[in-house]
Design brief:
About 35% of the residues lie in helices and about 20% in strands. By secondary structure, the protein is of the alpha/beta class. The termini are close together. Bound molecules: fructose -6-phosphate.
Length: about 600
């Protein structure tokens, strides 16, 4: 959360920083600010959006080096004063920071006793004062930053400038991403490649504990021991165009609509029609190893966790290996037993979610074998894992995850097919799944064509104070994801339950004022699901059924009918109408669809 951009080179920094911040706004959007160096530091910062910041930056705001920030508040409410950058009292040092400084209160008290005057409630401001205190005695800004960071407990991605060293920016990472962008006689840094791709595709990811000095003519990186580290630049294949709305009203609708293509990209080159198996070169496992696991444990947060539940189901059904999913944020705190014959799979669109990263690190510490299912190439989680599957879904800009969710489920289908075919899955079933996977992009197009009908339904149900989402077994993670999408972007309260659990408690909530979205595929549980609909209707509940057929009007008020695939793959398709339902409900309610309140893309704090 929060976005950082830094620039040093021959051009004016302010327009580059503003452009980069606009690209990062999905990471935090309660306030924004920037500082440029030109015979002293010149700063502007405001509560509000990057557009509000641009409005207060004068046309002539000269300076060829600068840092900028877009904020998602952790310490102190959104306000002009709490916006970053933060300056030292003498206005010599400026800092932008992502992450949380846990010992900020203690450091603040000491610094105040020593004469520092604080002007914000943020934890970050302690860094500006600490660096200002060491910079005088240090030979370099880099040394001053390193000395100050030794006193910090917590996580950070930072960018620092010193008015007396107008040719360099120092950045450092510990738990919060920093990526360097290499240009022609200019250098960039940001918390996300999104801010860089307009200027360069050559990037270098910092590891935790690393620090870098950027000058117009290049960069130097240092490890925690202050020794120089050698870094190989990576070429990113994401382009600036990926970050445009492409004529859609919102990124979310664009990303929902891209799914035929993004699913095709996740599949591309990975299906083997001769042996009906999936080839996943990045797993770094031979067939013998693939056969050796007795359990699969999947971890991820939020929607990534729900896609992991779909994945666990696919692995159990196709590979017959016991599998389950757990929120990474819980897993890491409960001292899990790490077993050598368990395959661990971490899911993350951003590859930077702190809880997931920390869980992977804990697994690695205990000798666990971890695969990553990740969208962002070269991200921290991808680097930390032993192998994995990239989604190739392209950048996801809207805060709510859609195309990464479906691509993750598809990647799990590939993994399950692979693990199944080196074990017990028959060639006939392998072929069935391969063919089903190939049908997905076209079937997603068919579902997208239902948008006018789904919009009407969204308009009809958007005024509900609360909605229930239910599904059984394969349908349950779909229901969870449907409820998640609705609540995060429309702010309509939504609960998801296994349909089988309804009568054990939540049925008490059902009535005309609480409609139910029921996931009812044509699988072996169809009759049981229809019985549940009867129970809901008997209590006066309205039902919107999403499945493969229209229901008796006695059982459902409305139906969305999606094409059938293989029953194991149906959850992927059943999710898509729910994305459209949430989107149109949010639009009907006038919500800020791409930047829902209180949320940010990439949760890089605990
Ligand atoms: C929901 C959503 C979040 C993310 C979660 C994990 O729409 O976007 O629940 O799925 O924060 O993010 P990643 O996948 O980046 O680790």
């Amino acid at each position: 959360m929060c976005g950082i951009v830094a620039y040093v080179g021959p051009k004016d920094a302010a327009p580059i920083l503003l452009e980069g911040l606009a690209r990062l706004e999905h990471r935090g959007y309660d306030s924004a600010g920037l500082v440029v160096s030109n015979k002293g530091l010149k700063m502007r910062k405001v509560k509000g959006r990057v557009g509000d910041l641009a409005a207060v930056v004068p046309a002539r705001f000269k300076g060829t080096l600068g840092i900028g920030h877009t904020r998602w508040a952790t310490h102190g409410a959104p306000s002009d004063a709490n916006a970053h950058p933060h300056l030292s009292t003498d206005e010599r040092v400026a800092v932008v920071h992502n992450g949380v400084i846990e010992n900020a209160d203690e450091l603040r008290a000491k610094l105040e006793a020593d004469g520092a005057v604080f002007v914000s409630e943020t934890d970050t401001e302690v860094l500006a004062h600490l660096i200002a205190r060491t910079v005088e005695e240090s030979d370099s800004l880099e040394e001053a930053v390193r000395t100050a960071l030794k006193r910090i407990v917590g996580t950070y991605g930072i960018a620092v400038i010193d008015a007396r060293r107008p040719g360099e920016v120092v950045v450092a990472r510990n738990g919060s991403p920093i990526v360097l962008g290499i240009g022609e006689k200019e250098m960039f840094a940001a918390s996300d490649v999104a801010a860089l791709v307009r200027y360069t595709r050559q990037v270098v990811h910092l590891e935790d504990g690393e620090l870098a000095v950027l000058r117009a003519d290049g960069f130097t990186t240092f490890g925690g021991d202050a020794r120089e580290t050698a870094k190989e630049p990576l070429t990113v294949d994401w382009e600036a165009g990926h970050y445009d709305t492409g004529g859609y009203e919102h990124y979310l609708l664009k990303e929902i609509s891209e799914q035929p293509e993004t699913v095709a990209r996740t599949l591309r080159g990975r299906l083997d029609d001769r042996f009906h198996i999936a080839h996943l070169g990045g797993l770094n496992m031979d067939a013998r190893e693939s056969r050796s696991f007795r359990r699969v444990k999947i971890i991820g947060c939020g929607s990534a966790y729900y896609s992991g539940q779909i994945g666990a189901q696919l692995i159990e059904e196709l590979a017959r290996i016991p599998a389950d999913a757990e929120p990474a944020s819980e897993f890491r705190y409960r001292s899990p037993v790490v077993e050598p014959d368990t395959l661990y799979v971490a899911i993350s669109q951003s590859g930077e979610t702190y809880d997931t990263l920390a869980a992977v690190q804990e697994l690695k510490r205990k000798g666990g074998r971890v695969l990553g299912i990740v969208n962002t190439v070269g991200s921290a989680i991808a680097r930390e894992c032993d192998g994995g599957v990239y989604l190739h879904a392209g950048p996801e800009v809207s805060v709510a995850s859609t195309k990464a969710f479906t691509s993750t489920a598809v990647a799990f289908a590939l993994l399950a097919l692979h693990l199944g075919r080196v074990r017990d899955l028959s060639p006939a079933d392998g072929r069935r799944i391969c063919e089903g996977l190939r049908r997905l992009p076209r079937q997603i197009e068919e579902i997208l064509a239902l948008e006018p009908q789904i919009k009407e339904l969204a308009d009809k149900y958007a005024d509900a104070a609360s909605m229930m989402f239910v599904g059984r077994v394969r349908g349950y993670p779909v229901a969870r994801e449907g409820a998640q999408k609705l609540k995060e972007i429309s702010y309509v309260h939504a609960e998801a339950y296994p349909a089988s659990e309804l009568k054990h408690g939540p049925l008490a909530l059902i009535g005309p004022e609480t409609p139910t979205v029921a996931i009812v595929p044509d699988d072996e549980l169809l009759d049981k699901n229809l019985t549940t609909l009867g129970e809901i209707r008997a209590r006066g509940g309205r039902v919107l059924m999403v499945g493969h057929r229209t229901a008796d009007p006695k059982l459902a008020d409305d139906c969305v009918v999606v094409p059938r695939n293989e029953i194991e793959l149906d959850p992927i398709l059943l999710t898509i109408p729910l994305q459209l339902l949430a989107y149109h409900a949010a639009v009907a309610l006038g919500r800020d669809v791409d930047k829902p309140r209180n949320l940010a893309k990439s949760v890089t704090v605990e």
